[in-house]
Write a structure and sequence with these properties.
285 residues; 0% strand
Length: 285
């Protein structure tokens, strides 16, 4: 059930929020350019629309969409599997175990789905900025990446991705579950409603953005076409600090915040509602 509900929520979410992900990635990649193309979020939106139209904000969507459904499925499956192992006799998790369940879910999705998916997405978006783009579509892009760099070419920035996704989900599940529990008054059988579920998810998303945007910046740099400039994740972080200072670790925070708050709120809400429907028609232990 977790696989079905998570996949359904993940697919709908990415269709709604991809434009902000596109802008965020453009700004993070642009900060490394000798002559930056964009002066800010508004300028990036304006130029993208002028050059590519509305659907220009959906360049690279296919790579993320193909991965978003299994990503959410693996995440919630991993979380529920760990949760079922760690809950006490009353069906509750301690604070530490809640963090561990979220961390485990994040690490699992990072290795199985997120790293190759994000690598292809970043390369697609970065390729669009070149004078002569070489990727014609999702299948062609993946084929070219594997042909030129081998299978490892789709797993660039794995360490940064594991750190990012692990911390992401640890923060999100911890904040979401604690806020939900506060609304329930400690009784996990109490329904808190769609609006409160959405609020809990949104706050959890915002917390994760401020908590791990530096890791997201490093991950994006490690997966871009300039990957060869960095020896490893630590070296990439050192270069960001050297050239851009501490503020360089928060490039793209605003567009990421706009996407992630809605993203996490939407996914948690759709997941919870879908699970309720499945519980009515699919009885499990």
């Amino acid at each position: 059930k977790a696989v079905m509900a998570g996949g359904f929520a993940g697919g709908l979410e990415i269709l709604c929020t991809f434009p902000t992900e596109y802008v965020k990635t453009q700004l993070q990649l642009d900060s490394r350019a000798v002559t930056p193309r964009y002066t800010g979020i508004g300028d990036c939106i304006k130029k993208t629309f002028a050059q590519h139209g509305f659907f220009g904000f959906y360049r690279g969507l296919s790579s993320l969409l193909y991965g978003s459904i299994p990503k959410a499925s693996v995440r919630f499956m991993g979380y529920e599997a760990l949760r079922n192992k760690l809950v006490d006799k009353d069906g509750k998790l301690t604070q530490i175990r809640t963090v561990l369940c979220g961390l485990g879910a994040g690490v699992t999705e990072a290795i199985v789905i997120v790293c190759p998916m994000e690598t292809v997405k970043v390369k697609f978006i970065h390729d669009q900025n070149q004078a002569k783009p070489k990727y014609k579509g999702f299948v062609h892009g993946v084929r070219e990446i594997v042909k030129q760099e081998g299978f490892r070419g789709t797993y660039q920035g794995l360490t940064a991705t594991i750190l990012k996704q692990g911390s992401n989900q640890a923060i999100r599940f911890f904040v979401f579950n604690n806020l939900k529990s506060s609304f329930q008054g400690g009784d996990n059988t109490v329904e808190i409603g769609i609006a409160r579920t959405f609020l809990c998810g949104g706050i959890a998303g915002a917390a994760s953005v401020f908590g791990n945007t530096p890791l997201d910046v490093v991950k994006t740099r490690m997966q871009g076409l300039d990957r060869h400039l960095y020896r490893n994740t630590l070296h990439c972080a050192q270069e960001v600090l050297k050239h851009d200072g501490l503020k360089g670790f928060y490039k793209g925070t605003v567009p990421r915040l706009g996407r992630v708050v809605f993203d996490v709120a939407f996914v948690f809400t759709i997941y919870e509602q879908t699970m309720k429907v499945l519980d009515l028609v699919w009885k499990t232990d």
